[in-house]
Amino acid sequence: MRKYGIDGIAAFAVLSGSAALGIVLWLQFDRGTAPCSLCIYQRLADLLMIAGAGGALLWHGGMRPALLWIAALAALGGAAAGAWQWHLVAMAPQVESCSAVRFLETSPAWGPWGSDFAASLSGQGSCATAGGKRWLGLPITHWSVLVFGGNALLLGIAARGARHRA
């Protein structure tokens, strides 16, 4: 695989992951959608995918295939969490709620944006309710599986190509 193809895939992963993260944060802070614990795990997978793909864009040495594999595995984990949430949405009448997750506690030392940052990584809503929210006509769970699954496939192809180039 040519270097520009690998760079293009990594750039696509960074851009699509950033767009997806921006959309879910907009849904949370502007539309009042409470994220669930699976939403938070998907956000963490998205951040890891963005970091791995972004690192692969900047690093052109022997570490590049490993960074692409990290990004691909993070995307695969995000797709799995999205697929599980899709299942929970389908089973909504039988699923009351998910367990709450809070990765960061708010602190006055973080400044005025500290509570918003901590809130973006804490989930307490219902997985079935949060996953059923729609954007452009499709439920968020469907978008999650599409974006993460597509990126996992492309990043895996790029990682294989980068391994053969290294």
Structure report:
Keywords: Cell membrane, Membrane, Transmembrane, Transmembrane helix. It is found in: Cell membrane. It is a multi-pass membrane protein. The protein is mainly alpha-helical and 166 residues long. The protein has one domain: Up-down Bundle (Bromodomain-like), CATH 1.20.1550. Helices cover 69% and strands 5% of the residues. The protein contains 6 helices and 4 strands; from the N terminus they run αααβαβαββα. A hairpin with a 2-residue loop joins strand 3 and strand 4.
Q: Strands, helices and their partners?
A:
Layout (H helix, E strand, L loop, with lengths): L2 H27 L7 H22 L5 H27 L10 E2 L11 H7 L1 E2 L3 H5 L2 E2 L2 E2 H26 L1
Antiparallel strand pairs: 1-2, 3-4
GO cellular component, one term: plasma membrane
Keywords: Cell membrane, Membrane, Transmembrane, Transmembrane helix
Pfam families: DsbB (PF02600)
Keyword list:
166 residues, mainly alpha, Bromodomain-like, two-stranded antiparallel sheet, 6 helices, 69% helix, 5% strand, globular, Disulfide bond formation protein B, membrane
Numbering strands along the chain, what is their spatial order in the largest sheet?
1-2
Helix content: 55-70%
Largest sheet: 2 strands, antiparallel
Low-confidence region ranges: none
Can you count the beta strands?
A: 4
Radius of gyration: 17 Å
* Oligomer state of the chains in this structure: single chain
N-end to C-end Cα span: 11 Å
**Could you spell the SSE succession in H and E letters?**
HHHEHEHEEH
Number of helices: 6
Examine the coordinates and then state which fold CATH places here, giving the name of the CATH topology: Bromodomain-like
User: How would you describe the shape?
Assistant: globular
